[in-house]
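Batch manifest, entry 17 of 40.
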Amino acid sequence: MTDAPRRLNLDNLRKVVSTFPDEIRDDDARRTIGLANSVIAHFLGRDWLEAHVLHTAPRPGFLRMDFSSGDRSREATVFRVIELAESLYNLQNVEGFDACISQLKLFSTTIRRAIARLPASASFTQTTRSAP
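Output type: structure tokens
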């Protein structure tokens, strides 16, 4: 198994945002998606981001940004990307997180299922820890 990614904190996120060009940093929407992409790249790798999220991804997919699609489709995809980044950030210290990351990296053809497991794994872990 590969080494676990370094954990992120708010200072790390602020540093990432500070590297954005002014036109991105000053635009809420562009800053949000830029930060989401940075979080995903941090945990899953730049290659994974390029293969599954960015508009230059070779194939259409669940998370691929397609700017030629209609507004609703594009907004749904942006929401999924931001939700994935938030889940990665918020669950990074939950037991089993690194195993979920490994699954996402290895089994990229089942992205929907692997992503759906992230919050479920966290809920299960938190429930079993608080059980008497």
